[in-house]
Amino acid sequence: MSQKEATLQISGMTCAACATRIEKGLKKIEGVEDATVNFALEKTNIKYDPEKADIAKFKEKVQSLGYNVVSDKVEFDITGMTCAACANKIEKRLNKLDGIEKATVNFALESVLVEYSPNQVSVSDMKETIKKLGYTLEQKQEKSGEQVDHRQKEIEKQQGKFLFSLILSFPLLWAMVSHFEFTRFIWLPDMFMNPWVQLALATPVQFIVGGQFYVGAYKALRNKSANMDVLVALGTSAAYFYSLYLSIKSIGSGAHMVELYYETSAVLITLIILGKLFEAKAKGRSSEAIKKLMGLQAKTATVMRDGQEMNIPIEEVLVGDIVYVKPGEKVPVDGEIMEGRSALDESMLTGESIPIDKTVGDTVIGSTINKNGFLKIKATKVGKDTALAQIIKVVEEAQGSKAPIQRLADVISGIFVPIVVGIAIVTFLVWYFFLSPGEFAEALEKFIAVLVIACPCALGLATPTSIMAGSGRAAEFGILFKGGEHLEMTHRLDTIILDKTGTVTNGKPSLTDVLLTEGMDETEFLKLVGTAERNSEHPLAEAIVEGIKEKGIELGSSDLFEAIPGFGIRSTVNGKQLFIGTRRLMAKHHIDVGDELSKMETLEKQGKTAMLVAIDGHYAGIVAVADTIKETSKEAIARLQNMGLEVVMITGDNTQTAKAIADQVGIKHVIAEVLPEGKAEEVKKLQQVGKKVAMVGDGINDAPALATADIGMAIGTGTDVAMEAADITLIRGDLMSIADAIFMSKKTITNIKQNLFWALAYNCIGIPIAAAGFLAPWLAGAAMAFSSVSVVLNALRLQRIKLKA
Amino acid sequence: MKKSIMIWVISAIVYLGVVIGGYSVYASMNPKMGEQTSHVLNDQREKY
Question: What task does this protein carry out (chain A) (predicted)?
Answer without folding.
Answer: Involved in copper export.
